[in-house]
Design goal:
Layout lengths: L1 H6 L3 H5 L3 H24 L12 H8 L8 H7 L1 H8 L8 H5 L3 H5 L12 H8 L46 H8 L8 H4 L21 H8 L35
Helix pairs in contact: 5-6
Bound molecules: heme C (8 copies).
Amino acid sequence: MDKEEKDTPGNKFVKKFPEQIIHLFVVFSVFIVGIILIRAYVIPARLKESGYHRTKTIEAELSFKGSYSESEVCVECHDDINEKKRNGFHKFLACETCHGAGAVHAENPGETSPPAPTGRVYCALCHAYDPARPTGFPQVATMAHNPMKACITCHDPHAPKPPEVPKECSACHGEISRTMSISPHVHLECVTCHTVPQNHKTTPRAKKPTTPENREFCGKCHDRDARVKGIPGVDMKTHGEKYLCWQCHYPHMPEAR
Ligand code: HEC
Ligand code: HEC
Ligand code: HEC
Ligand code: HEC
Ligand code: HEC
Ligand code: HEC
Ligand code: HEC
Ligand code: HEC
């Protein structure tokens, strides 16, 4: 080291700085040269493009031959299938969601026929259990749900149905029902407080039941002046005034402590 230092032309300059600074300087130089070399020789050119889209992606999209029609076009020749699909659970899925781009087929049916996704993998894209999906969206654990068989052996892809729509509220609202069954409200039916539209059970998220809106609702039974036999009453004017009753009492397990 000493020998080398004597030989270098910048010797005087170097002597001005403490050794640590010089070591740091060397480390940083190696680091920066390294980055420059990696950028120049290791990283492929397509990753260094600074535009919004990579050229390769644009080329791939442009070379895509298929083109889409609208479902109305498919219906002209396949109205039997549309008839089934129209009222089923898949009514909002376009034909080409599953069958792929079909414009070429629609113009000349004899020439090409669109593929049909008959395997389990495809249905799982939407129906495999995933906590990020909205509450109530029909999901199955694909590993456990009738494994080894194609989904379409049991479910018609154009009009899938679970074989039976549950009749009881508890089938879907198990936790609330269990909670209520050991609460002072055990004898109340769900529909005492919720008006439930006919098709809530088949399309739960589209058709929602009502929930009580004001204090007077609970007052029907609990207003002291109403004097309903066997039900504890409160003075509606002063008891928890300003607030909705269920801001203090969970309606499915009301407590008074
Ligand atoms: C001009 C009439 C026509 C239009 C429009 C049309 N098809 Fe077809 N499609 C046919 C005919 C004819 C067949 C062959 C029928 C057969 O083999 O039973 C067929 C067959 C199919 C098949 C079955 C392929 C197979 O291998 O069994 C699918 C899937 C299909 N069409 C989907 C579509 C979709 C999706 C659209 C809309 C993008 C569409 N069709 C538009 C006439 C049409
Ligand atoms: C959820 C995905 C899905 C949607 C949406 C869908 N299909 Fe299909 N389709 C399939 C599957 C899977 C098959 C294969 C069924 C089989 O092999 O038993 C199929 C089969 C077909 C066939 C073959 C003949 C038959 O009856 O099995 C035609 C024709 C067809 N679909 C047309 C359509 C049209 C038209 C639409 C839109 C109105 C549509 N499909 C929407 C999944 C779908
Ligand atoms: C692009 C997404 C998508 C794909 C792919 C798809 N589905 Fe669906 N599926 C839906 C939607 C959306 C509903 C309606 C959900 C609702 O009403 O809340 C539905 C409903 C269902 C239902 C009714 C279940 C219930 O309890 O309400 C069944 C069964 C079903 N699909 C089976 C299948 C099968 C089998 C396939 C493969 C051929 C398939 N799905 C492919 C989106 C999809
Ligand atoms: C052997 C027949 C069979 C096969 C194969 C099958 N299912 Fe099902 N599926 C059923 C039955 C029966 C039900 C209703 C009872 C239940 O929930 O288990 C059902 C229910 C469903 C539901 C509604 C679940 C809910 O909670 O609302 C969906 C979604 C579904 N299946 C999708 C699929 C998908 C996706 C596949 C393929 C990966 C598939 N099924 C394969 C018979 C089958
Ligand atoms: C097939 C399953 C199912 C059945 C049966 C069912 N529900 Fe629901 N219900 C749901 C789902 C799923 C939601 C959640 C919707 C959401 O979170 O977007 C819901 C939401 C609700 C809500 C909340 C509405 C809101 O504004 O958030 C009430 C109240 C309710 N259900 C009451 C009932 C009652 C009472 C019954 C029996 C008469 C019943 N449900 C039967 C599935 C069901
Ligand atoms: C004493 C009246 C009352 C009864 C009985 C009742 N509920 Fe409720 N429920 C309410 C009120 C009030 C709300 C609104 C709570 C809120 O907004 O915080 C509610 C909210 C709900 C909700 C949406 C919020 C949540 O907690 O998930 C569901 C689902 C629900 N009720 C289902 C049921 C079911 C199922 C039954 C029967 C087992 C039932 N309720 C019985 C008063 C009642
Ligand atoms: C249809 C009549 C009815 C309606 C409506 C009703 N309740 Fe009740 N409530 C009862 C009955 C019955 C009891 C049980 C009385 C008993 O056995 O002590 C009760 C008990 C209670 C209790 C007392 C619990 C305890 O530990 O003593 C509270 C708090 C309560 N309800 C709150 C509510 C709230 C909040 C609402 C509005 C969301 C409501 N109730 C709507 C009938 C009703
Ligand atoms: C600010 C919170 C709060 C609000 C809002 C509230 N309560 Fe209470 N409630 C309590 C507390 C705390 C108790 C227990 C102590 C007491 O009796 O004052 C209680 C007790 C009760 C009891 C039992 C009384 C008894 O004699 O056993 C009933 C019934 C009741 N509330 C109904 C209601 C109703 C109905 C509403 C809406 C009109 C309501 N509460 C609003 C806090 C509240």
